[in-house]
Write the structure tokens for this entry.
Amino acid sequence: QVRLEESGGGLVEAGGSLRLSCLLSGSIFKLYDMGWYRQAPGNERELVASVTPGRSTRYADSVKGRFTISRDNSNNLVFLQMNSLKPEDSAVYYCAASLDGRYGPDYWGQGTQVTVSS
């Protein structure tokens, strides 16, 4: 079975940086579009960034220029480098895997909390 395991969340001051990692196991990593989503209390889950197997990327307008998504196809890992963090970036961040990027994710991780203090 496919499993996604996130790591790297935590508490950081505004202006700081964090790097999230996600390991996919149980399937062939190169088949999937990989994405990071986030959900803050009272808000809907939203796409933050995604990367195709060929490393084409897409970002939410709110994080462009601050966040970078990347993937390591050899080690089944996807990363989200988050710089210049703002309090409004605080949320639970979820890793997701999609067999077809036109549709929603097929698999989700359990999420990792990111809290940015002002």
In short: The chain is about 0% helix and 50% strand. The mean pLDDT is 96.
